[in-house]
Write a structure and sequence with these properties.
The chain is of the alpha/beta class. The protein has 12 helices and 11 strands. It holds the Pfam family LysR_substrate. Belongs to the LysR transcriptional regulatory family.
Length: 288
């Protein structure tokens, strides 16, 4: 039984339409028909009813579909595991990380972790903070790194780091105070999933005429600030490298009390690989 026949069957079952199946798989319709016919001959049963150009799953097709999906899942997993083995990995760690974390301190931590644990294959899936809880709950990741407390009740959530948020601006504004910076630059908002509603209310209480601009990505926010398009409140780990390289400058707070930003680690089943990574993460962050 050819694995290609089974993959074609699964897509054909989804659409119950050979033309759409051929478009998704980049195959000709005769090739799709041939795959299904060969699979039916191999199983000695019809999987689709044909009525002209219309097709529909037979009872046998409905019954075979979950087995087909399981076979493909095991096949793909087996190939992935074999590829990992060829590369010298003996264990695997799937991490779901929020963009703010993945683009700031995570790369340097990962480099040290992988140097210390060369037999662990690390896979990173970057997701919005709001989606990481669901990813963990569904078992699609071993560990989550996020900026918010998840709503799912079947996962464990611990704070691994808490840091102050800093008001930062372009280097040209290095001599400005809080009042001058908020009067002369747009305030770039909503680049963090938690603190902006309350923070913005606080800012407008003291500076009611402040102009704002929503930008929902941290990396874009930093580039906008560097180009003089605005200023923003960002967690220190997100902007510490830019401050060190004199690309951004910190503006001291006066009337506004910046909030704190927490990094949470999410777990569901604490495997050895998860425990090793969390211990490593906490050791490094204690040094901060």
């Amino acid at each position: 039984m050819d694995i290609k026949w089974i993959k074609t069957f699964i897509v054909a079952a989804k659409y119950e339409n050979f033309r759409k199946t051929s478009e998704e798989l980049f195959l000709t319709q005769p090739a799709i028909t041939k795959h299904i016919k060969r699979l039916e001959e191999n199983l000695n049963i019809l999987l689709f009813e044909r009525d002209g150009k219309k097709i529909a799953l037979t009872p046998a097709g409905h019954h075979f579909l979950p087995f087909a999906r399981e076979m493909i899942e095991k096949y793909d997993q087996g190939l992935n595991d074999f590829e990992s083995w060829k590369q010298g990995y003996k264990r695997k760690l799937m991490i779901a990380a929020a963009p703010q974390i993945a683009s700031s301190f995570l790369p340097s931590i990962l480099r040290k972790f992988m140097d210390n644990n060369p037999d662990i294959e690390v896979i990173i899936n970057v997701l919005k903070s709001f989606d990481i809880g669901e990813e963990m709950s569904a078992g699609r990741a071993d560990l989550g790194l996020t900026r918010i407390v998840p709503i799912q009740t079947n996962i464990k959530c611990d704070v691994v780091h808490e840091e102050l948020v800093k008001l930062v601006g372009p280097t040209e504004a290095c001599m400005f105070d809080e009042q001058m910076i908020l009067q002369n630059y747009r305030l770039i908002t909503h680049n963090h999933p938690v603190y902006w509603d309350q923070l913005l209310k606080n800012v407008k209480t003291h500076y009611p005429t402040v102009r704002t601009m929503k930008v929902n990505q941290v990396e874009v926010t930093k580039r906008f600030i560097e180009e003089g398009l605005g200023v923003s409140y960002l967690p220190f780990t997100v902007i510490k490298d830019e401050i060190a390289m004199n690309k951004l400058v910190e503006i001291k707070s006066d009337k506004i009390s910046p909030p704190a930003s927490c990094t949470y680690v999410l777990t569901k089943v604490e495997t050895d690989e998860v425990s090793i990574f969390i211990s490593f993460l906490k050791d490094i962050m204690r040094g901060w």
